[in-house]
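Budget justification aside, the reviewers requested a transparent look at the raw inputs and outputs of the sequence design task funded under Objective 1. We therefore reproduce one unedited record. The lines immediately below are the structure tokens for a 226-residue chain.
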């Protein structure tokens, strides 16, 4: 996935939130911050994956507010069907489209390759965990809100992992998320785990704190390596 980005820079879009439509009918949303094309500016990027039926549990609004506040790129691709391909038989067209949408974005903007995160809600969280663990050389952080499972075909790198889940979730029991976080911690990943009083949603304060933590960690790294 995304092994090499073409060096030739393509025409970027203006600042704002854009609906992208590709030739094969696939769609994605891309938020571009102001001054995204300023020379020498490296942009943080968050890839956000929806749950079954295109539901974000409120996480899309929180992620957009974060992108606007911190001047980050936010890429939100649509699955081909009602959910992501792995939940319908195996990795295939959706993973290929994510790769394509990332490449399209990185051909137009200077993305900080040390500041890329993959996030998702529900089925999207399960997919984000699976894809993120397989592509730890690309994604430094994985944010999983109410996941049900993880099924990476391989492991690469050691991305940081954040998992949050509602205690009263009747769709995907909280015990699943707890088991995921515990297993990853035992395997040596840097894991943060949060439970909240609520159902199958994205908790706004927890999501904002998780996204804010991304910025804190990056600024800390920048401070250590001027």
């Amino acid at each position: 996935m995304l092994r090499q980005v073409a060096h030739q820079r393509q025409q970027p879009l203006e600042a704002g939130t854009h609906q992208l439509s590709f030739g094969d009918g696939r769609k994605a949303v891309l938020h571009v911050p102001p001054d995204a094309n300023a020379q020498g500016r490296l942009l943080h990027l968050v890839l956000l994956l929806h749950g079954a039926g295109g539901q974000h549990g409120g996480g899309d609004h929180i992620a957009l507010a974060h992108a606007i506040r911190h001047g980050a790129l936010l890429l939100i691709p649509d699955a081909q069907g009602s959910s992501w391909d792995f939940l319908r038989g195996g990795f295939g067209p959706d993973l290929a489209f994510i790769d394509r949408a990332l490449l399209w974005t990185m051909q137009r903007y200077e993305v900080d390759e040390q500041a890329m995160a993959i996030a998702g809600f529900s089925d999207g969280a399960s997919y984000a965990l699976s894809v993120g663990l397989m592509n730890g050389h690309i994604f430094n952080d994985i944010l999983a809100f109410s996941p049900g499972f993880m099924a990476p075909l391989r492991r690469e790198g050691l991305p940081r992992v954040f998992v949050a889940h509602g205690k009263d979730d009747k769709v995907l029991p909280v015990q699943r998320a707890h088991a995921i976080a515990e297993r990853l911690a035992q395997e040596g990943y840097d894991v943060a785990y949060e439970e909240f009083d609520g159902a199958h949603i994205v908790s706004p304060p927890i999501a904002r704190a998780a996204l804010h933590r991304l910025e804190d960690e990056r600024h800390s790294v920048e401070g250590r390596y001027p």
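The CA atoms of residues 9 and 107 lie 5 Å apart. The chain has five helices and eight strands. Computational costs for records of this kind are itemized in the attached budget.
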